[in-house]
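We modelled the chain as a single entity of 111 amino acids. Its sequence is:
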Amino acid sequence: IAPNRQVPNAIRQWGKVLDQATVVAIDPRFSATASKANAALYLKKHLGADKLISFGDNYNDISLFQVSDFCYATANAKQQLKDIASATIDSCTCDAVAKFLIENHRTTPSR
């Protein structure tokens, strides 16, 4: 997560609730070829993940949703994103993403 962004309290609690998690904020402004989709696919491959779950609220998340196995729009998302989402969750102002991950995607480390 970018150091200049305020991190919701629920995200800080992930370490206490989840055994293992990877959280990435992607800023596509650095390259004309950069995209959330390309970055997420790169991470999926290099982390050996078997599925990609994404969350979004705006038009810049469309490409990410198109390459995700599951994609969730927040309640405050643009309608076009909600239309292609697997489901809609609560608003991002309510820590919806963190709550969703805590409730639905507990992981265990591979040993």
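As a brief sanity check on the tokenised model: The longest strand covers residues 70-74. Residues 37 and 64 are 4 Å apart (CA to CA).
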